[in-house]
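Re: the 172-residue chain
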Amino acid sequence: MIYIKLFISFLKIGVFSFGGGYAMLPLIQEEVITKNGWINLKEFVDILAISQMTPGPIAINSATFLGYKIGGVLGAVVSTLAVITPSLVIILLIAHFLRKFKESKYVDWFFKGLRPIIIGLIASAAILVAKNTIIDIKSLIITLAIFYLVTYKKLHPILCIVIAGGLGVIMY
């Protein structure tokens, strides 16, 4: 039964998410914490941190880690397949029809209409993570320092992860 619930939950996430992995995070949070109570918010933030540090898309990594936490290896497989299935089907359909309609003003309007939604979902994910990881002045300093290094100094994200980890060890 848990595998069916996992599949349906992550299939819904895959169907109703536009804009990539970060846009999926609020939907994942709603499904696994609020609706089903499979994990708590602290565990969710920890899984997000691991998902960001491991190679691959964050949504797939999150689905895999969450599925494993909830249902073991089979749960990981089920969650991962469920979250990628809608994208795979949609991309195949779009590829087939986009050639025919790529100059359509309606298609252009549709994609322009999705942009604000995607920005909102990504902002929601950023706020969620910030609220649960910036717990004191030290974590705020690390956050601002890494934001500056990535945004303005264009340091590689992997290097920034190492720097943030080192700062965490030193400051805590």
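The chain has two domains: 2-133, 135-172.
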